[in-house]
Model the fold of this input.
Amino acid sequence: MLLVGNPNVGKTSLFNALAGMRAKTANYPGITVDLRKAALKVASVDNDPRCQASTQIELVDLPGLYSMEPASPEEEVAARCIRGELSDQLGDRPSAVVVVVDATNVARTLVLASEVLEQNLPTIVAVNLIDAADAAGTKIEFDDLRRQLGCPVIPVSARKGRGLAELREAIYTLTKPAESVLPIARQSCVAGCTGCPYAARYDWADGVVKSSVQQDPRKGVKLEWLDKLLTSKGFGLIALLSVMLAVFFLIFSLADIPMSAIEDGFGWIGGVVDDLLPTEPLSAALWFPIATGISLAVFAGAYWLNGTRWTRVSTLIAVVVSVLVGCLPLDDFRSLAIDGVVGGIAGVVVFLPQICILFFFITLLEDSGYMARGAFVMERIMRRVGLPGKAFVPMLSAHACAIPGIMAARTIETWRDRLVTILVLPLLTCSARLPVYVMVAALLFGDSPWKASVMFAAAYILGLVAALGTAFVLKKTVIPGEAAPLVLELPRYRLPSLRNAWFTTLDRATVFLRQAGTTILLISVVLWASATYPKLPTDVSYPTEREHAQAALANSFAGKAGRLVEPIFAPLGFDWKIDVGIITSFAAREVLVSTLSIVYGLGEDGSEEPLGLVETLRRQTRPDGSLVFSTATGLSLLVFFVLAMQCLPTQVVTKRETGSWKWAVFQFIYMTALAYLTALIVYQSLAAAGYA
Amino acid sequence: MPMVQAPSLTLADANAGRFRCEQVLAAGLDAVRLKRLGICAGRELELIGRGDPMVVRIGESRIGLSRQLASLVTVEIQVP
Done:
């Protein structure tokens, strides 16, 4: 059972209203597009009204499409699903189709319905937004519509929950066995067709509407003055900037509370794990199976979340790693469990509140019809650098986290535009960079909040300018061509549904956790190992815990790698300790701060030391007695972190969305090169000016 | 005197008002993107906001349209 419809007809709202909590995003092998599906429970309303039997139907929410002639990869998947060409991946040929049309715009949305009806599948037309049509004074003769379409037509309002029972009933009646397929045959090209099949379809749809829809011209709210304002050159841009600023203000002010709650929660979990583990080493015969079992359980959980199958390779990896974990001494196991696994999961989940709030507001804005106006206004600016106006929603999302931004790039129709957008998105300042900015701001401008805020604003602007500049360079070099010119529907304004925003947010959060969560878990375990091994010789003792941790890190693989790359980063003003931070933050930027606090001898939790991290960093000197964190080094480090990739989960998502590692590698190389060169210029010119 | 074919008006050069779409000269994907939103030979449309991009009304839909594509749509003025 497929749910089909134009974009902006409230199709996803209808899906959410029908499916509720039972929806899940499914990943079909061989299809790059995520489809949402749900097992729909429909009451079988038989001849006997006392019959309470119910049956399950699998409902698949296809991506929105305007016609069976696709213009984007998502639309292509939707069209092929309807034609039954993807039955290898999806199971059976669709047994029925629900086409959603917009009651406030019947003529346009009926065009797709006519194309679907020609597929000769059992079809139901659901006329959504019936409440909005009522309010606008539009009256639809459903009996007449049914007669002309030759299929069941059900008025619904997904937002108000009207007509859902009737729709379920119609779905059941249609899919119940022994139901004959409705005989629908309509010529796609009527006599006098001039080679444009759409003209004939529109004429047909207009004819249907003329006889079955009446418009009361006195009724309905006219929002044309608002549209004129919001799409105007000057005011439209100001309005868009204010909306974006308001969304960001809400994100950063509302996310604070759940974020600290999550941090506390994971601290508590770490404590519980610490207490649960035995203090004295158990006998190997008892400990080995326990540790191996726990490790296997973690693998099973991660594979389940990520949808990884238990193939030979993945099973082998899980077993080998688990056996290795089983052989670890107790202290190492404790450190792995608390710092590696719990800490790694906490590092992902802590960004979840921001992402959820962002998606909640973006869904509300999209539902209200405003987002299309935003894209319309931005088109003027973005097209100059070879980006489509629609890229502004992904760019907005990327200011919280690049991963949802890259996923949001799917709304961009053409492949070239989508690729350019994905490639430049990680340059925008995401929230994982903020801990680094805060540290540098405190280090350099701790005495002047005014200067610190200028530095923050400059870092955001640098990211934005770099992204737009890179898009321009890509347009001239690697990915030539112009952004596809704009043809964009500006949907009618309507009141957004909180329920729909809630379900969409829930869905996006799950996808984020699945895509980013398992990767980050893996990375944090690898990083933990590289910062822990090889271990210090046991015969040397250190007076304090902190000096021990410092020496252990210096002796580890990460520490050695830091010394190895010192000559490469020396021209940027970094010493080997900063290099260790760059290596450990390779996969996740925010790790830099905690690494620096260990490598400069603060112990694991910098805040509890008498001298804070910032004060300690400020006092660091080079062998020649000069300060390590001069203005030149601080700004060079800042610029490096604004521009460098330093986020492996983003790369995994880039690979997934572009379909090959090629673009992920390209993204990594160009961003690292850009970061290195810019930081080099900043350091060398500031050093020459005497700020080193 | 030879017949002079009047140069046809494109949507890009039109003033606000009602028009009948004569021909869509776009090719490939651009043509599909225009036509499936109703910018299609024989259809009536109304230009309500000039500029780049411009706003066009077709039936009950409003469509944002770049000037570049609008220059590929020839129209004739519709007298109300």
Remarks:
- The radius of gyration of chain A is 29 Å.
- Chain A is about 60% helix and 5% strand.
- The interface with chain B takes residues 66-67, 69, 71, 104-108, 111, 194, 196, 198-199, 202-203, 206, 224, 227-228, 231-233, 372, 375-376, 379-380, 383, 389, 413-414, 484-492 of chain A (CB under 8 Å).
- Strands of chain A lie at 2-5, 24-27, 34-43, 54-61, 97-102, 123-128, 138-140, 153-155, 213-215, 487-490.
